[in-house]
Amino acid sequence: MSLVLTEEQTLLKETAAEFVQEKSPVTHLRELRDKSDATGFSRALWKEMSELGWAGILIPEEYGGSGLGLSEIGVILEECGRTLAPYPLLSTAVLGASALALGGSDAQKQALLPGVAQGETLLALAHQEKPRFAPYDIALNAKATSDGFELTGEKRFVLDGHVADRLIVVARTSGSVGEREGLTLFLVDPSASGVGVSRTNMVDSRNAANVRFENVVVTADDVLGDADRGADLLDALIERGTAAVSAELLGLIQEVFDRTVTYLKTRDQFGVKIGTFQALKHRAANMFSEVELSKSITIDALRAVDEERPFRERVVSAAKARTSDTAELVTREGLQMHGGIGMTDEEEIGLFMKRAKAAEVTFGDGGFHRDAFAKATGF
Amino acid sequence: MSTEDAALATFREQIRSWLPEVCPPSLKPGSDTTPSAEDRQAWLEAFAERGYTTPTWPKEYGGGGLSKQEVAVLNEEVTRFGVMPPGVSFFGTVMLGPVLLEFGNEEQKQKHLRDITFGRVQWCQGYSEPGAGSDLAGLQTRAVRDGEQFIVNGSKIWTSMADQADWIFCLVRTDPDAAKHDGISFLLFDLHQPGVTISPIQLISGQSDFCQVFFEDAKAEASNLVGPLNGGWTIAKRLLQHERQTLSGGMPGGESPTPKKGGASEVPAPTSPLAEDARAYLGTEGDRLADPALRDRIAQYELDKLCFGLTLKRNGQEAKAGQGTSAASSMFKLYASEMNKRRGEIQMSTRGAAALGWEGEGFSSNEIMETRGWLRSKGNSIEGGTSEVQLNVIAKRVLGLPD
Question: Is A117 exposed, middle or buried (0-12, 13-18, 19+ CB in 10 A)?
Fold first, then answer.
């Protein structure tokens, strides 16, 4: 089991680094934020990313993708984490593409996946209802009718939900809130009658929406995977999403850490570089250890999912817990070490801190995943 | 099968048939006789004759001349066989040996390496001094050249197992007028001589695995000076690298299981010894530990252990690919020590009053052992370079922060 990138992955990573640094540096996110861009990213640039193959990495070749794995999209997400690139990789290329690839019928795949791979179709997973992540706390009701279902309820924190061409809605067809059984996933057109999408403005300037469903009519053909037994598919999506967010956090962590060390080497105070102060040196060295640990576990988690390794949920939770906690540490310390300038909007550390918090919350923070890790270890 | 794989398979077969041939019956699994000193010696010599006590060293100096893959096969087969391999001096094999191979002259290699392989000489490390501690280069033990000898005066402290050692590899000041790091030499000498006094130091754990060693006109042959006169600091640093690597290597690996051929059923479910312990002392609510705060601490520990094990592994793979940094050994030493201390604290917390036993009735031997282990673990972040020293090394050598 190797923890070193393959030649192909290294190449992909280098290409991604070059691309996002040139076309989507942190200033790109800032511009989108400052002009309150309706989409929140550039569709032209997403098209370019898709031409590089990014949107179709997890899509099988027969549907226009490259049929690669999470390890490959992981290195891209890592580079996007370094520049805070606000592109729909998680919502569409990871969650949406996986939902269809793993759970879709042939007709559903034919209809949607080629468009996803080409960067034309955007997808969003409408799953979360409560503020704190709780995978089976699903109240959104799917009432069976003579020829399908009627969806009623509300979803929050739907990433890229404001621009999605199809929503993947997790609904309850039986059982009660909190139960793993009785869930069904549906493909819903957001322009259908009864769907109300409202974009939210989040602290990280990224794109999410709240979505209301009022007696939204769907047919049996819109069911993704097996009705009433959707939790298996949902778990697989959450697993991939969790590993993918860890990869993005890893990039963010490394970037903030690098910037902070550079600052310690260049900032003068009391007539010396502040990096000469032992109080700061030791904290920087401690952070280094946590960064290295975060890197190892993230690489392993991505590979564990690709290899379908037994007990991989343990490794995936370890990755999300470690990267969430390390991101909290390095952004907090990074800001502190930058001093007053770290508090300004002009300095970019704050933007990283905001994104780190949002990514921590996505699919469960450190505490959530320590709990999951303990369960997966049998205690 | 590639040629390389075929050669390894042949090697494995050889080891597999060799082990039962040379292992005295009293040591074999299931034996009900206590092995005699002769039997233990025979087991040691069988290994040493093939160089397997120092398997990666060159054959010409008594080593096994084995590749890393062959060493892995050897270890696997010994584990499979189920008998502990013979032990020889840790200080000789892990610390002094590699340094002699790199810096020693031909005569020194011939004189000392084979004795280490055969366990004929027990070594100890004369680094720390009462007044110096973490400021290693502040050492004051003097060695003055007198004809074909050095005369050594001074004292070393925290010398592990000096009371069981025959020889010492020692940092001595040979030029008191030179800058701190430039007047130090690396000298080997016999401890069994007049002028050497060794007194064990009792620790808070009740153990005494360290000693203070006093030299009063002790003598060292000049031919036992390793490297150039006053050039000992470079050697000292290299040896510390070996030491840190070994100390952090003692951490339990946190590798996640990879499926073996034949399917998932062969991979054992993950477990946590700490959680099992806590289950016994605290009980459970449902399938969770009854104390959520302790459960979270154990989860954090196990999670970090997993991440740490993977990082050790990744570092090894990067080194093989020529990407590693040797200064990272400081990070491993730091993290392993701090984790070991955390583990001790969690165990104490789990056991409550049952952790307070010192000796005698009322506590299991395991409880007493763990309590003493907790006390002993406090030394982990002091010995072999304090955690603060490791942090300084990382800041300087890895992160390049200014002095």
Answer: buried
* B272 interaction partners in chain A (CB closer than 8 Å): 377-379
pLDDT by residue (tens digit) across A314-354? 999 999 999 999 999 999 999 999 999 999 999 999 999 99
Rounded Cα–Cα distance for residues B391 and B330 (Å): 7
- CA-nearest residue to A368 within chain B is B296
Residue type, B324: G
For residue A197, the distance in angstroms to the closest alpha carbon of chain B comes to 38
pLDDT in tens, A78-118: 999 999 999 999 999 999 999 999 999 999 999 999 999 99
- Contact with chain A for residue B388, Cβ under 8 A: yes
pLDDT at A217: 97
Are B212 and B133 in contact by the 8 Å Cβ rule? The answer is no
Using CB atoms, pick whichever of A293, A311, A315 lies closest to residue B311: A293
- From chain B residues 263-322, the ones with a CB under 8 A of any chain A CB are 264, 267, 269-272, 275-276, 278-279, 284, 287-289, 295-296, 298-300, 302-304, 306-308, 310-311, 313-314, 317-318, 321
Residue pair A209/A169 in contact by the 8 Å Cβ criterion: no
Mean pLDDT of chain A: 97
Catalytic annotation, pick one of B4, B13, B148, B243: B243
Provide, as residue numbers in chain B, all residues whose Cβ is less than 8 Å from the Cβ of A375: 287-288
At A167, which amino acid appears?
Answer: L
The list of chain A residues with pLDDT below 50 reads none
Active site residue B102: no
Residue A249 and residue A236: Cα distance in Å, rounded?
20
Determine, for residues B303 and A286 on separate chains, whether the beta-carbon distance falls below 8 Å.
no
In Å, what is the CA distance from A311 to each residue of A95, A103, A363, B248? 21, 22, 18, 26
Q: What local confidence, expressed as pLDDT, does residue B324 receive?
A: 62
B265 vs B338: CA distance, rounded Å: 35
Sequential DSSP letters for A146-208? TTEEEEEEEEEEEETTTT-SEEEEEEESSS-TT-STTEEEEEE-TTSTTEEEEEEE-TT--EE
Q: Are strands B167-173 and B123-126 parallel, antiparallel or unpaired?
A: parallel
Round to whole Å and give the CA distance between A297 and A303: 10
Alpha-carbon span A347 to B157, nearest angstrom: 51
pLDDT of residue B360: 87
Q: Do B275 and A378 touch (CB under 8 A)?
A: yes
Residues of chain B below pLDDT 50 = 250-264
One-letter amino acid at A352 equals F
Q: Are strands A223-224 and A183-188 parallel, antiparallel or unpaired?
A: antiparallel
pLDDT at position B150: 97
Please report the ipTM that was assigned to this predicted complex: 0.95
Q: Which residues contact B21 (CB under 8 A, 6 or more apart)?
A: none
- Run of H or E residues at B173: strand B167-173
What kind and span of H or E run contains B150?
strand B149-160
Q: Which helix (H) or strand (E) holds B285?
A: strand B284-285
Cα distances (Å, whole numbers) of residue B221 to A214, A307, B143, B151, B225: 93, 60, 11, 9, 8
How many CA atoms lie within 13 Å of B125's alpha carbon, on the beta-carbon side?
Answer: 25
Closest by CA to B150, choosing from B188, B110, B182, is B188
- Residue B57, C-beta contacts closer than 8 angstroms, at least 6 positions apart: B51, B63, B64, B65, B97, B101, B113, B117
Q: Can you give the pLDDT at residue B258?
A: 46
Specify the amino acid at residue A226. D
Nearest 5°: phi and psi at B313? -65, -45
- Give the span between the Cα atoms of A266 and A336, in whole angstroms: 16
Distance separating alpha carbons of residues B55 and B62, to the nearest angstrom: 9
